[in-house]
Amino acid sequence: xxxxxxxxxxxxxxxxxxxxxxxxxAIGTLMGDDAARERGKAQKRAGKAAEKDASSAS
Length: 58
What we know:
This protein has 2 helices and no strands. By secondary structure, the chain is an all-alpha fold.
């Protein structure tokens, strides 16, 4: 996995949230748990939105 250089803590937090969302989505898919998969997708979308906001603010 390629790491991105981060300019501040907000950007790193957003990237971490996106990564965690992806992991939770994958685990939900493997377990067949639709609710867990949807929570992971929501967390991933929120992380991407936060990344976008952080990059716009910089």
